[in-house]
Design goal:
- The chain is mainly β.
- The chain contains 2 helices and 4 strands.
- It has a 4-stranded mixed sheet, with no helix packed on it.
- The protein is globular, with a radius of gyration of 18 Å.
């Protein structure tokens, strides 16, 4: 249900896993009332930080309520680059991952919403990704050579 592979928003110790609005307006309960520094919360099982919460993620996909009905199942990529004189409905971009001001529902893998491409919000950003460079084990081999 969530990017960390679980059904719950708390870990085994009862601590929240991400920065979001946990209850009705109780922003303080998870430790953040605005965006927080990267890696404030523990990484998921794959060592990735902040895969949901904190800021919602801009995507390159255009938002259309029926996009899944006319895109391919294996590649549901729907892009449209709106021009300034296009109607507002054409300027919507998909936003995923939830933010510090969203309830847990918006952090779920299957949920999406939109925001207009020509707007800026304090709760929308992007997630940086880099390739795995590898680490050396105690015996001198890299982890990528073992797996």
């Amino acid at each position: 249900m969530y990017p960390w592979g679980g059904l719950y928003t708390r870990n085994y110790s009862g601590c929240f896993i991400a920065n979001f609005k946990p209850m009705r307006g109780n922003y303080y309960d998870d430790g953040g009332v605005q965006t927080l520094m990267v890696a404030t919360y523990d990484p998921n099982e794959w060592g990735l930080y902040d895969m949901a919460g904190n800021v919602a993620e801009w995507t390159s996909n255009a938002f259309d309520e029926s996009a899944y009905s006319f895109t391919h199942d294996l590649n549901p990529d729907y892009q449209y680059y709106a021009h300034p004189d296009d109607p507002p409905a054409k300027k919507r971009k998909v936003v995923r991952g939830g933010s510090w001001k969203d309830v847990a529902y918006y952090m779920q893998n299957g949920s999406r919403t939109y925001e207009f491409q020509d707007s800026a919000k304090s709760y929308i950003g992007f997630r940086c990704v880099r390739t795995f460079l590898g680490r050396h084990r105690a015996d001198g081999t890299s982890y990528s050579q073992v797996y």
